[in-house]
Amino acid sequence: MRYISTNRKTAPTTFYKAVLAGLAPDGGLFVPEHIPLPDVSAIRRFANMSLPEIAFVVAKPFMQPDFTDEEIKQIVDESLTMPVPLVQVDEKIWALELFHGPTLAFKDVGARFLARVLGRLAGREKKKIIILTATSGDTGGAVAHAFHRVPGVEVVILYPRGRISAMQERQIATLGANIWPVRINGTFDDCQRLVKDTFSGFEPGNVIVTSANSINLARWLPQSFYYFYAWSRLSGKAPVVFSVPSGNFGNLSAGVLAQKMGLPVQAWVAATNINDVVPEYLRTAMFSPRPSVPTISNAMDVGNPSNFSRLCYLYGESYEQLSQHLSGYAFTDNLTREAIAEVYRKYNYVLDPHTAIAYLGICTYRQKHPESEGVFLATAHPAKFPDVVQEATGKPVPLPELLAALSGKPVKSRDFEPSLSGLSEFIRELI
Ligand SMILES: *Cc1c(COP(=O)(O)O)cnc(C)c1O
User: Fold this and answer.
1) How many A from CA of 125 to the centre of ligand 1?
2) Among 106, 134, 285, 406, whose CB has the most other CB atoms within 10 angstroms?
3) From start to end of 161-214, where are the E strands?
């Protein structure tokens, strides 16, 4: 399989090179040149296969010839260790729980897969890989846990001092080994700028410096696996509606990739908070990126969704195609809170604020299509947002063991002012 850029100004390249590059040289995102079609009988057999077994069939054509079957099998087995239960909430509504990974959010899936791929590339290149990432909270934890003790890879995570939650800081800064948390006396924007400046200052040599950004091909691809899994666990026949709580649209566009590979999907629901650039586009055919507005579903506070170009590519750059397959709905914080309260009251099921938006999306769609079977993606564990959830349900959220175990651990971060001087030397010492 070869990969091209959504900007079409980069020569086709391999999986291997696209993963190491992250972003294409022309500033676009890497997408497969063709969509592979696994035969329909293979998809029918998914009902009797585990998530890693399904992932192997789906991933194979994307990763050949850079990886052997044996390597692909190891990568899916090592990265997809968490269960992804499909929980029935109402007669025709299911939650696909993607939050059973080490940091209790769906980003664990992509981050773990990317870590296993990059670990193997470091071994092959016989070079050290340094990952530089800025985080405003959740991504940092997923990346830190995914790369912890992966040989040949050092991970530097920059985060703004005092601007992420204590729990998020512990997820980033208590692991040690090859994870190097850096606390910047500044804002998230300072952290991002420092990462960018550090990149441009590095001479290619005996080290590869890259990012674990969500646009990386090897973080995007694995997000297509669990859609096949969910469908195979339902009737396995009828097309399904998927409601995806969206910010950068990596998750939803990976689902569309699955659909293009043959997954029977009736419709997509692009569910957002009031940062509604994509629902607005579906309504008006105008794409108007703008600064994001803070909400209680903050991992979706995105004003310029980076994976929108992948979505357009998959639908042949056609507004008609896109608007025919996608329904877009946006919801306020108040509606989100009401949904958490209602679902708890009606079904005794607890939603986090992001998942609540996906639930609202599927309900809105089903008002017009009451016969359809709907799956909403549950992207974070409610215990990650204890205040909002407790306020809505009236009950404290029990702390899962994974989070409880963190509370006693000391935070070990290095502190830097928001300038390159000390930081560059620190990074050079890791080489
Ligand atoms: C990142 C995130 C999202 C949004 O996913 P995208 O792929 O950026 O659309 C939704 N929910 C949670 C909990 C997240 O962390």
Assistant:
1) 32
2) 106
3) 179-184, 207-210
CA distance 230 to 235: 10
Q: Is residue 192 over pLDDT 90?
A: no
Residues 367-423: pLDDT tens digits?
999 999 999 999 999 999 999 999 999 999 998 988 888 888 899 999 999 988 888
Distance between CA 97 and CA 120 in Å, rounded? Answer: 29
Mutate to test the pocket of ligand 1, among 138, 224, 248, 359 (most ligand atoms within 8 A of CB): 248
Residue 372, judged by CB atoms within 10 A of its CB (0-12, 13-18, 19+), counts as middle
Q: Judge if the beta carbon of residue 105 lies within 6 A of ligand 1.
A: yes
107 is catalytic: yes
Is any ligand 1 atom within 6 A of the Cβ of residue 215?
no
Annotated catalytic residue: which of 73, 107, 346, 384? 107
d(CA 87, CA 321): 31
Q: Whose CA is nearest to atom 14 of ligand 1?
A: 299
For residues 351-364, one letter each, b for 16 or more C-beta atoms within 10 angstroms of the residue's C-beta and e for the rest, the string is bbbbbbbbbbbbbe
CA 233 to chain centre: 22
- Under a CB-based contact definition with an 8 Å cutoff, are residues 412 and 174 in contact? yes
Dihedral sign, Cα of residue 210, residue 250, residue 15, residue 60: positive
User: H/E element holding 137?
Assistant: none
Q: CA-CA distance, 209 to 385, in Å (whole number)?
A: 33
pLDDT at 236: 61
State the Cα–Cα distance between residues 13 and 16, nearest whole angstrom: 8
Per residue in 214-235, pLDDT tens?
889 999 999 999 999 999 999 6
In eight-state DSSP terms, residue 13 is B
CA of 243 to the centre of ligand 1 (A): 12
Ligand 1 pocket member 295 (CB < 6 A): no
Q: Which atom of ligand 1 is nearest to the CA of 138?
A: 15
DSSP string for residues in 62-87: HHTTTS-HHHHHHHHHHH--S---EE
Q: Is 275 in the pocket of ligand 1 (CB under 6 A)?
A: no
H or E stretch at 388: helix 386-393
